[in-house]
Give the backbone structure.
Amino acid sequence: MKPSGFSTLLYKEVLRFWKVGFQTVAAPVLTALLYLLIFSHVLEAHVQVHGVPYTAFLIPGLVMMSVLQNAFANTSSSLIQSKVTGNIVFVLLPPISYHEFYLAYVLAAVVRGLVVGSGVLLVTCWFAPLQFAEPQWIIVFAVMGGAILGSLGVIAGIWADKFDQLAAFQNFLIMPLTFLSGVFYSIASLPVFWQQVSHWNPVFYMIDGFRHGFFGVSDASPWTSLAVVSVCLVILASFTLNLLKRGYKLRA
Amino acid sequence: MSVAIRIQQVSKRFGTVQALDGVDLDIQQGEFFGLLGPNGAGKTTLISALAGLTRADGGKISVMGHDVQTDYRAARRQLGVVPQELVFDPFFSVRETLKIQSGYFGIDGNDDWIDEILENLDLTSKANANMRTLSGGMKRRVLVAQALVHRPPVIVLDEPTAGVDVELRQTLWRFIRRLNEDGHTIVLTTHYLEEAESLCTRIAMLKAGRIVALDTTASLLRSFSTHTLRLRTNGSLPAALVAGSGQSGGWWSLPFDRFDEVEPLLAKIRAVGCVIDDLEIGKPDLEEVFVRVMQGQGRNP
């Protein structure tokens, strides 16, 4: 098949993270495994969520958190590196439309998210019996969640002029949103106020919908989660495409 | 001859700085064109606007008849740009870099042309080396190669020889000259004026975002520069000659336009008993033209 700007950029972005797979795939898998070992050791005997043993409950959360964080990391780090080193011109000079640019970066982010998520699932599934009650939700939320965080990564990568600005975006927005989304707990266990706050966190719906695919039970209906996640994706995709169309910080 | 690049009333402002101020310029197909000017004159901004890396505030630019904004896909296929900065992607080898760049332009199976470019730029032995491991000169060659992978009819080189050794310059210019002879339009910006003088058939000089001189190289040299009779003597020149001459380091400089003026000059010197110890004739050069144009002695194109 003849390559296009889109397919080549997608290939390049996937190859880029694959070439440093130790850092981009193996390291986050190990981190997730450590989370599992520590939290399950402490809580397995004390906590059950929706009738599911804690370790089994935790695994989908860790998988999805890895998908989301790595999707964000892929687009944001690639763009900031290209901007800082100046090699972004190689992508800006060819006849690549802003739609192709967006799709290639975000799809590569989804691929990395899925690769890391699969890795996390592979190394953690031995620690607890997992069900795959409604697998279509697993795929839907993994892909859509990856696309949302990939889009956020594009925005952050374009907006940030320095690595510390990107780190601020990651540490003060992405990390709190993912950690406070029900990865490690069910929001039903929270006080009412924090339950309501959690419902304003879109990452909660990504994790909850994803987890529903494993156990068939969740804090929110998967359809509600799908609606929230879809709206978020449309809004973020539109915003990002608008930035790219205007050439914000790329074509000054 | 048809137009390769058409620039019409292009302006661009960055904050309080007017980087381009109503630039008008046509570059014909097959030309070897020089774009000269001091730092900050607007050369790179103009090239960036041409390449779609920056958006002009006003005016229009087309490449081979394709508007760089409304018909950007076609325009960019016609254009190969060697950027000024020494940039590279550290994740890939030279060959991977060139194959990826080909793919961006929708070109598959470009290996023969990539091999030819590598050979012409003396990069064959480095084809599988990672970009990080290359010297600055080698990285510069890869930048040139990247600009050529899609065989663009118009090639823009933004200070391609800045800080590189003689060998690369000779290799590069040999290859670029060949491409020009094959019909490619070349646009060159450089601070090495002797390069521009020897390579470019026509030159534009930019100052503060405006074109302050635009003509063939030969015509610019004729208009703004003169031959100089430089001589060292055992005494002072006749008073009539001293007025129009310069003196530096024991050498007198006497400007002249035509060679038949030389003998009368020498005759006047001999007539006052002045003995010439040493003598040489300086040719007009672009550096003198450049200095005079930038000092405001230029004419509007």
The longest strand of chain B covers residues 3-14. The mean pLDDT of chain B is 90.
